[in-house]
Amino acid sequence: MNYSQGFRLGLKSYSVAFKFIRVNRLGWYFIFPLILNVLLFSLGFYSVIEWGDIIIQNLNELMDVDSWDFWGASFVAGSIKWLVWIILRILFFLIYAYLGGYIILILLSPVFALLSEKTESILSGVQTPFDAKQFFKDIWRGVVLAIRNLLVEMMFTLLLFILSFIPVVGWFTAIVLVILSAYFYGFSFLDYSFERRRFNVQTSVRYMRSNKGLAIGNGLVFALVLMIPFIGVSLAGFFSIISVVGATIAARTALEEERDGI
Predict the structure, then answer these.
(1) Please, are residues 181 and 143 in contact by the beta-carbon 8 Å criterion?
(2) What tens digit of pLDDT does each residue of 192-206 get?
(3) Which of 54-58, 158-162, 183-187 shows the lowest mean pLDDT across its residues?
(4) What is the per-residue pLDDT for 64?
(5) pTM of the predicted model, to two decimals?
(6) Closest by CA position to 36, among listed 214, 177, 240
(7) Would you give the DSSP letter of residue 259?
(8) Under 8 Å between Cβ of 196 and 114
(9) C-beta of residue 236 within 8 angstroms of C-beta of residue 30
(10) 212-225 b/e with 16+ CB inside 10 Å = b?
(11) φ and ψ at 232, to 5 degrees?
(12) 90 C-beta neighbours (distance < 10 Å), count
């Protein structure tokens, strides 16, 4: 399968996955990203408040704010508190926006493992009994692969950041970053299917390097949704469910075509 064929298959799998989820009544899986969003935002909001209080208290002691005795002192002190709160909120959103995709991949890995296996069972018509050992193996592999992909992507991101200062070359770095993210996200979604076929990590990596179009096509929608300001990460959690179903369908199709020599 060449690059363009793989890309089209990966991208087309999204529309197929929508219908597949509806027909096979898998919509209840969207409950999990909803729960994750509530937990993460609650934790983030609580953390901002806690860290804000700690930083403001230290600033008060360092600057001895309580001893200020000049006109407008209370306004300046209040402004500092608001500035600290705003900076922490911005940092939270920036970190969440950059790492949000991988936070989803790691925390929802048990859901992805179940959903991918369920999708495969429906496609094959064979109901396999639940295997707890294999289930936890799938989760562990999903987490390890997500961390591995995050580290590799961060390395490439740093390199692209340096290259972005070169005239002309810098114009294309943003596009390359999106494609790079799409590749690694698609890789993670597809790997649940490869794990069931007993691909080790090295074999999975080699297969994805030979089928970059498939990975990019599958991960592109997820990567683009993450880029939506403010609500991107929240929406991406729901799209990840579609991505996993689409990846399972695409992986099965690609492997069958390779087996049949198409």
Answers:
(1) no
(2) 999 888 888 889 989
(3) 54-58
(4) 60
(5) 0.82
(6) 240
(7) H
(8) no
(9) no
(10) bbbbbbbbbbbbeb
(11) -55, -50
(12) 10
